[in-house]
Amino acid sequence: MARVGIWTGVTGLAISGLGTLLLFAHVTSEYHAAIQDMDSIAVGYLGLILFGVCVSVTGLTVKLRAAGD
Questions:
Q1: Does 66 score more than 90 pLDDT?
Q2: Count of domains in the chain?
Q3: Is 29 helix (H, G, I), strand (E, B) or coil?
Q4: What is the pLDDT of residues 26-60, one digit of tens each?
Q5: Cα–Cα distance for residue pair 63/50, rounded to 1 Å
Q6: CB-based contacts of 38: which residues, under 8 Å, 6+ apart?
Q7: What are the residues whose beta carbons fall under 8 Å from the beta carbon of 52, sequence distance 6 or more?
Q8: Where in the sequence is the domain holding 21, given as residue range(s)?
């Protein structure tokens, strides 16, 4: 079960990293930075980042739970 926790944590970090890179690429692009609806786009990417954090914390919890048993 600890192995599942590790892989879940790594997956969460990858999702957060992807969301961060997408947000950075979107904000620094001249074309996309001119879009008036930037707030909702940024909230979507931040949601992806927070989803990755939640998955990573879940993986950590699973790993710690397996280590305690």
A1: no
A2: 1
A3: coil
A4: 777 767 666 666 677 778 889 999 999 999 999 99
A5: 20
A6: 27, 32
A7: 12, 13, 14, 15, 16, 17, 18, 19
A8: 2-68
